[in-house]
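Archive entry. Fields below.
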Amino acid sequence: MAAIEILDLEKSYLVGFWRKRPKLALRPLRLTIEEGEVFGFLGPNGAGKTTTLKLLMGLVFPTAGTARILGLDMDDPRVKSQIGFLPEQPYFYDHLSARELLNYYGQLSGLPAKGRSARVEQMLARVGLSDSAGVQLRKFSKGMLQRLGLAQAVLHDPKLVFLDEPMSGLDPMGRREVRDLIQQLRSEGKTVFFSTHILSDAEALCDRVGVINQGELRGVGAVAELTAQTRGKIEIIFHAPRVPAGLMGLGAEARLSGDMVNAVLPEEQQDAALEVLRRDGLKLISLTRVRRSLEEYYIQKLQPAEGRKEEDRKGVGA
Amino acid sequence: MTATRRANLVATAVLSFSMAGAIATLYAIDHTRRAAVAQEALYVRSSTVLRRMSLGYTGLLADIYWTRAVQYFGEQHHNGSSDYRLLAPLLEVTTELDPRLVPAYQFGANFLAPKPPSGAGQPGPALSLMKYGIEHNPGQWRLYYNLGFLYYTELKDYAKAADAFAQGAKLPATNAFMPILAARMAQHAGEFDTARMLWRTTYESTKDPLIRDNAVQHLLALQVDEDVTRLEQVVENYREQTGRLPSSMGDLERAAFIHGTPADPKGRPYKLMPDGRIEVQDPESIFFITKGLPPGAAPPQPLHQPPPESK
Amino acid sequence: MNSRIGYIAFNTFREAVRDRVLYNLIAFALLLSGAAILVGEISIDIERLVVVNLGLTAVSLFGVVIAIFIGIGLVSKEIDKRTLYTVLSRPVRRWEFVVGKFFGLTGTLVVNTFLMAIGVLLALLYVAHKFEKMDAWVLVALYFIVLQFLIVCALALFFSSFSTPLMSAVFTFALFVIGSLAEDLRGFARITQGVGGWMATAVAYLVPNFSALNVISQVAHGDAVSGRLILYNSVYALLYSAMAISGAVLIFQRRNLK
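PREDICTED_STRUCTURE:
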C-alpha cells in the first residue's frame, strides 16, 4: 500500500497590504510514497518543502487538492497516531525536562500509562539524552533539542515518520547519529519522508528522491538509478612516476599526485588503457565505473521545465 | 461527517446558545441589581476621593455619575416611589467632578425641588446647586434661567425670579424670552401667559426627554386651568345675565356664550356641575391641574409613568 | 478524548507554575501585610473596611493581570513559536487544545486565588481579632472574583486564537476595563436614540459584565449578597466563557499556523 498519496495538493497565500494577490507557495503536487521506503525531498530554502510537510501535518490547510496517508484521508484523526513529525528547528516547553516532555507527549499520543515511562527512558537512551533527562529544556543546546525532537517523533512507534531538515544545526557526530537512526527506522520497516538540502545525506540514505523548486515538483527518481547511470567513463588509478604517453592518445584526463596517477577515460578505451599499463609495467590499483552524482541530477532539475514563461516562474515561491 | 466538521458544528451551536443565554442572564442580573447600583454609587461621597481615584479622568467619571443620577430618578419614578434621597448627592458629586456639566443643573432644577412624587422635594439643595452652577459657569444663560425657574415655580419668590431672569437677559447669546420673563415677573407673575412662557422656554432649552415631558404636562395643566377659569367666568356671566345657573353646556351654547363644546386638551368635554363649577372628566389623567377638580382634591401627580425611553 | 484535555490542562498549569507565576503571591503578601499593620496602628474603626477593600481589590487586579499575561504567554506564544507543531502532529484535536488550555489557565488562577484568599482572611483576623458572621460574604466576593477570572481567561484565549501576543493582551485588558463599566454603558445606551442607540445597546450587552461581579464595597460594609445574584452571576460567567471559548475554537480550527 502507498504510505502517502499526494493528490494535486496546492497552497497559495494572499499577500499584499491593500489589494491582496495570491502567491503560490505550492503548485499542484502529485506524489506517491511507498511503504517502507526512505524518501528524500530535496530543494533549496523556500522551495516549498516545509509547506508540503505542514500541509500533510494539518498545520496549514490546502487551497486545493488532498492527500491520503496510510490509506486514510489526511484529515482523519486516526492518522495522527501512526505518524511522527520533527519540525525544523523545534522549540518545546522551556520549563519541562526532557523526560517530562516525552512523558507528556506520550500521554497525548495515547501511550498507556503502564509502559510509558519505560518507553520514555528507552527513547532517551536511543538518542543519547539519558544523562540530561532531568534538565529543563531551556538549557538545552540546539543539537540536544534536535535529538529530543527525533525522540518525540518516534516515541509512539509510528509507521511513518516525517522529518524536516533533520540534520540542521548538528555537528558531524550528531549527523552521523541521525543517519544511523534513519537507517534503523528503515530496517524496522518504517517509512521515512525527510526534507533536506544536503545531497550527500540524501544519496546515502534515500531509496528515492524528489526535487522541488519554487513550489513545483521538478523530478522524482530512484537514487540507485540516478547515480548508476554512468557517463560511459571509467576511472583507473595506478602507480607511476608520470602519466604514460600512451594514455593521452586515448582521450584521457589524467592527474598525477605523488607516485599515483588518476585517469578518467571513455569506457570503450578500457582494454586499450590496460594494454598501456601492462606494456609499461605499471601497477593497477583500481578500476571503477564513474558514477553520476546526485548533484548533477539535482542541479539539472532545479531548472524549470521548457516552455515555462518567465513571469510564471516569478509568481511562485514560498 | 468528518471530525472537524462535527467539532465546528458543536462549537457554533455552543457559541449561539451561550451568547443568547448570556444576554438573557444579563437582563435578569440587571433587574436584580437596579437598586444596588445607585447605592453603590454613593459609597464614595467625597468627590476629592473620587477625583483621585479617577486618575484624572474626572470628566468621564462625572458623565458616569450623571447617567446614574438620571437612571436612578427614572427607576424610582417608574416604581412609583416617593423616595429620591440619593438624587441630590448624585447630582452634587456629578457637578463637583465636572462643574460645567450644564444638563445636571437643569435636571436638578426640574426634579430636585418639586414635591414627591414628581420630584425630591428638596428646594434648598436645589437652590445651592443652581448657585454653585452659576458660580462656575457665569456665562451660561440656562443656569440663570433655571434659577429664576426655581424661584418662580417652587419658592414663589417672584422678586428673586425677576432678578435671575434679568441677569440672564444681560448675557450674550441669551434666550429671547429672558428679558420678557424678567419684565413679567414684576407685575404679571401669577398669570397664565407668564407660566406658559416659562414652561415653553424650559421645553425648548433642553433635549432631555424627562424634562421635556414634565414641561409638556405642565403646559397641558395650564391649558386646563385657563380653560376652567374662563368657563367658570362664562357661567358667572350667564348667571348675572339670566339670574340662574345654566343646567348644561347646551344652555351656554344656545345663549351664544360659547361656540361648540369646550373640551380639555385630551379631547374630553368639560363637565358643568350643578353648582356652577366646571370639572374635567377623569381628573386623574391630567397632572398638575389646580382647577377643574372635585372640591378638596389635590392636584394629581404623575405616578407609574414609564420613563420615556426613546422618542 | 477527555484525558487529553486533562493532560493539556495539567501541563499548562505546570508550565505556569514553573514560570514563577506564583511569585506574584509574595508581592501580594507583602502588600497586604504592610497595609494590615499600618491600619492596625491607625485604628479609627475602619480597619475591617480597608483590609477587605484593599485585599479583595488586589486579588482581583493581580489576578486579572496574571490571567492576561499567563494566558497570552502560554497560548499566543505557543502558537507563535511553533511549539504547537509537535503537539498537533499527535492525535490531539485543535478544540481539545483550546479547552485544555482554558482549564489549565483557570486552574492556575483558582489556586492562586485560593492562596491569596488565605492571606486576606489572615489579615482580616489580624486587624479585627475575630471573624464575624458578615465575613462569610467575603467568600462570596472571592467566588465572584474567580468567576471574573473565568471570563478573562476565556477572552485571552479567544484573542490568542487569531491575534499576536501583544494585541491579545491589549484587547483583553480593554474589554476588562469596558466590562467593568458595563452597567453604566447600558445606562448610556438606554438614553441614546437612533442608530447610535442600537449600536451602543449591542455593544453594551455583548461586553462582559464585570460590574455585577464586583461586590467588594458591598461586602466591605458587611452587606449581604442576594442568593439570586449568586445564581445569575454563576450562570452568566459560565455562558459567557462558553461563548468566548467556542469562538476561540471556531477560529482556531481554521487557522493556518505559520
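CURATOR_NOTE: DSSP finds twelve helices and two strands in chain B.
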